[in-house]
Amino acid sequence: MAKRQLRDNETDVDDWAFVDDAGTFQLDEPQRSSYLYFPLVNEAGIMSAVTPKLHGDVNASQHEFLTPPTAVEDLHNKRTARNFWVYEHGKGPWSAVGNSATQIPEEGPDGAESVSMEGGLLYHEITRKNDDRGLKAEITNFAPVRDDMVELMRVRVTNTGEDAKTITPTAAVPIYGRSADNIRDHRHVTSLLHETWTDEYGVLVSPTLSFDERGHTLNETTYGVLGTDADGTAPESFYPVVEDFIGEGGNLEWPEAVVEDLEGVEAGTEVDGYESLGGLRFETTELEPGETEEYVVMQAIWDEDPGATALAERYGSSEAVEEELVACQAHWTEKSNAVEFDTGDNTFDQWMRWVTLQPVFRRLFGNSFLPYHDYGRGGRGWRDLWQDILSLLLTEPDNVTDLLYHNFAGVRFDGSNATIIGDEPGEFKADRNNIPRVWMDHGAWPWLTTRFYLDLSGDLDFLLRDQQYYRDLHVNRASEQDDEWSPEDGTELYTDDGDVYEGTVLEHLLVQHLTQFFNVGEHNVMRLEDADWNDAMDMAPERGESAAFTALYAWNMLDMSELLGDLQAELGVDEIEIAQEIETLLDTLGESVDYEDPEAKQARLDEYLDTWELTVSGETMTVAIDDLAADLETKAEWLYEQLRDQEFIENEAGHQWFNGYYDDSGRRVEGDHENGVRMTLTGQVFTLMGEVATDEQADAIVDAADEYLYEPKMRGYRLNTDFEEVKTDLGRGFGFAFGHKENGAMFSHMAVMYANALYRRGKVEAGHKVLSGIYEQSKDFEVSRIYPGIPEYFSERGRGMYTFLTGSGSWLLLTTVTEVFGVKGDLGDLLLEPKLLAEQFDDGKATITCQFADRRLDLTYHNAAQAGYGDYAVSEVTLNGEAVNFERTDDGVVIEREIVTDLDSEAVHDLDVTLE
Predict the structure, then answer these.
(1) Domains present along the chain, CATH in parentheses
(2) Which of 245, 336, 863, 893 has an alpha carbon 20 to 30 Å from 305's alpha carbon atom?
(3) Using CA atoms, how far apart are residues 665 and 730, in angstroms rounded to an integer?
């Protein structure tokens, strides 16, 4: 068989296209593309995925799946789906969803069918039309923006033929009703727990017990599938048990109850101990030519009183479901309107609406509960949380301050942290199943996010707020366990006197960075421990080192030292109190450490860890701001020089870049190798971003990345070159096929961070190349086969993978707003530093609508000469038509915060900036 070539001999499919300015898109024949799914979610906790044939699951948590859990391969391998049958008397059954034996393949005994999909904010609609039968079905799925954990499905059936039809409709949704753990573990046994009964409006299931990782516990959750017609009339009968519905030898795509037109059981029936089905048979009706009948199906999960009647009365009519759909669209439109772009490329502008929503999706879904994200059990990871806040500060800033503050309670006093965030503020877990593991990059992200918050808000007092530390069974950076600790002890760190210890947010940040500074390997680079950002670099815990993230820590410490000067100047803070134990790590204030000696540095870290055990003293010391800033600056500058001198490498071909890693054999990873040149993108990003790389080194990095990492067929940069080795002394990622996931894929997250770094260094054309490549690849549906948005990565064939839930969405929004359009904060003031290319202006204009200081600004850059970046500067600024004073910086202008906060908070304000 000939090897498939990218973009050659592709299946002839149409691209999706936006049909309005509100992000609504349409796609013809969506069922001809595999792996497509669309997210449905609400703040109440319902989480769903839906495909063109309505596969995908409905759930509220890892242990509360209404329908069977579906990983991505299940979307086409299994028959379980939301189905809606139309039994046409005289002709037999037809699935309005397309899931029947006679509709596979698409041109079967029932004739050809045309299908179209519409995706909107945040609803999914499939229209299926069969001209031979003279039937059309329009099915709309969405989650109402209420406190109910429910997904609504509206079904409209229209007679498009010339003769009247007699039809009997039947909704059929399998009710799984238990933990995802049971999909393989005790699948049948847990069905014996099912108490199933039929209500006036549908089928309800409430298992007696839950069998999962939590043990055998009493179940308090009820699952239901309810339905009405357009007037609120209940179904006439029900099919509550799968085996009764499908019949002997039948299946969900050719069920005996529908094929033979068998009546179901009446309301009030109880059938326990079987696999359950939300089978709702509606009354037989006559459809005249052109006439439409409408039905509403409610898929719901309750943690308390089922309230089936209340739900049916709330949603069970044509008027009610339309009202809810309008409210849903309005809610998500408001979310996506938080940041809007007008660049002249309407497809890009609307595509960015979906990118803007992706961090919101991850806040609600976590890293789980969509078909590709089958590795998670709920909750977000530590790193994800801090990076998502970067974009939430732009889109949902109202509650971010408290969220940011509560997150610091997850920091341990040894510089490590909890890795899983719970549902409540300040709720953390060590890891899934309490696995002892430390990602060495985790301590770096809180400063990046906090600094962004401080620049947007000017809230320097935030650094001085007291917060507790996290404590669990893992101690000494998860290298040991406290066998005496139990969850009942709580997760607070106590003093020797038995009080909960609290330190300032600034102290937490210091602990994270100072411990890491001394936590080095034999090459005097920070230890990789169990992995860094690249989770697949997870097999070098002893001798592995991450030069890539050493650069980020170095930049953070230098930035932190500079901000301490602002803390002193703005708030008059000349000294702060910190835990007495931290004095050991501030070596320039006392007994200094030879930074050239990695063993001496590791010994100093051990000394710090030995100054306390399971509790801390509770004693504090006073440190002068000047002294603290000087200590951080000294450490940072040493790291800068060490990385520049030791890690900047040159290969035989004359290309130069930064080595990013050492493996568990103590060998430098990057450079020339017997298997070919080895280079990682991660090793270049943070050296660029934090200006560890000099200007000359930055130029060399770009050239090397273009040479070794750029892949034209994917329009982007690979995460690494092909090592041609299962490198078991570095990470599991090298067991993946090259070009997939963390082994050489075009990994969107790091690619966008690379673009961000390039923009920061003024390499605008190179940065634009990265971002535009991701955009072009994403919207090339013939290859990427994804709906609008940015995926986690693109496979070797160019398909978008792990859609919707990815940190790349947050970084893409952040980069587009703060670097491309240059809308930033400067300790509370508004900083404008546009880096738009000439081609990004439409008729001399480029507009962004965004929030700053709780005010909505409609910012337009006017570039009448169509000048390119580097050839223009801000010459004039007007606000609502009035000239505004500003202070010029090297690359832009600063507008005082008070000028913005004096504006009406309810209005949208025109901010016009002239570039000449």
Answers:
(1) 34-336 (2.70.98.40), 821-915 (2.60.420.10)
(2) 245
(3) 9
